[in-house]
Records
---
Amino acid sequence: MRGWVLTWQAREQPLRERESMLDTARTLFEQALKIDPNDADALAGEAYTYHVAYFYGWKTTEDYEARVLGQANRAIALAPDNMRAYWVKCEYLNTSRRPNESLAAANTGLAINPNYAPLLAARGNAESSLGRFEQAKSDVQQAMRLSPRDPLIGMFHVILGDAELGLGHFDAAIEKYHNAIDAGYPVYFAYSNLAAAYALEGKMDEAKTALAEARGIFPKLTIKWMIAHTPNLPPVFQGLRKAGLPEQ
């Protein structure tokens, strides 16, 4: 439980502090697994910390298939109703550009518990990667209705913004990205996607300001990085090119 608390608290911190807090959380999950190697929550928690490390490129030498997917699958095998394990699996598969598999993982978990808001939002993320923006929007809106004060509410706003962006609703996307930031979720991709939305709407001054914020948070940000490490969202990449983000 202490490990999971740290994962939620880390979301509100700058990247350096976030990495340190997740390392501490991983240590706590490892300690739990020494006591009980079959603790599904600890397996899912450790898998989550490695998923975030994969997303930001913090630990480039790790075997993420084993560290994330392997441990999430083991957690599910031990406790088929462990929603956190399905959520981690779904997010990792989508980030690693396997949206169909991500969608299947989400559907399997939601068949057990259709009211688990983070997994509904994660399914929306996979659906946007597949170009199913209306369904993505519906799923994330349902997640917000189920859990309006969720620790992941900032991420929910980003995913909803991505769906609006895919639908060409640039004003709505801009509003959702601002909602994410205002909810205490000032991550680089909230700002980068905001920059893309502004650029596609033709508001280039605002686009460049948002892009500068994104690169200030995450200096190695490039189009190449986004394509390799974030969900498949061509409208985001198109907007970022227009905003002036370098290819590499």
Note: The mean pLDDT is 94.
---
Amino acid sequence: MGERRAPLALADLQATLYDLITAPEGATTRWAELGRGPSELESIVKPGARLSALERVEIYADMYFYRIRDVLQDEYKRLVAIVGSDAFHNLVTDYLIACRPSNASLREAGARLPAFLTKHPLAERHPPAPDLARLERLHLDLYDGPDTDTLTLDEVRALPPDAISALHLQAIPSHAVVQSGFTLSASWHALGAGEAQAPIGATPETLLVWRQGLEVNHRPVDVDEEPLLSMVRTGARLDQLCERLIESVPEERATERAFQIVGRWLADGLIAAHG
């Protein structure tokens, strides 16, 4: 008989099972690589009437991959639409080998997939894929972002004229401005409906992504709007936005254009209410 091993401490037990369940080559092969015999696992995993300890662990190993793949398939359904389910399956396999989850929540399992995809061969075959994955993940992140009361158009209209020009505007935390090398917005809804052939144009666009209520939205940003969004990220007065607009539109139209942009922000729930 072999030498009896001392019982594993809880942390070591968890690490051992995690190593087996996440092993790309399978639990049985991994256990053998560690120089351990099948019966040794029975000290931490009780065998059943029909399955050995290793066979029981293999079930969890299979569940580990397929459960995460199914979660990511739902999270990145537009990415699946353009690359296909088989290619996505292989992508997740490669991803989980390179980026084993370090968080107990399934929500975080796919957080690193967009960055991983940028260096994966799949991106060469489908150039828009990394940007699309990044936008899909951003929708999830902003959906879980902090809640903030928003300033309404009616509240601004009720202010005296001199207070409006000095109005301090700051964007809600649950928003982002992202650049893409592709026209993602035009194909977003079609891809979400599973239309794999929805074309993605190669024209770059800047997108504003934000949460309004329980819904995350995005839209292309106008050229003269983009620098103003950078200003309201940290906070700016309305008259400062007007001054900035003079650099891109005629001075006589700057105030009117500023009110158009701010009015849209207010309607979209992008501006935080004053504390």
Note: The chain has a mean pLDDT of 90.
